[in-house]
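[Automated response] Your request has been received and processed.

Submitted sequence:
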Amino acid sequence: MITLTLLHPIQSFPVQSWCFESESVVRIGRSNDNDVIIYSAVVSRHHVELWNQAYGWEIINFGANGTYSHFK
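Generated structure:
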């Protein structure tokens, strides 16, 4: 299971959360065909994929602006 939380860009408080129980791939981006849709000019249509590997989650970045992540 993985829980993703979108934080406010300035004050860092949670804006929205998504929980995925058994998905092997979670897609994040601006396009409507993603699992997590983020409407922002700095987010690519297909920005990031999270892959559930045997050793943990792997982030694959496709976005032109890079990706910021914070793990707990």
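Summary generated for your ticket: Residues 61 and 68 are 10 Å apart (CA to CA). The chain is about 0% helix and 45% strand.
If you did not submit this request, please reply to this message.
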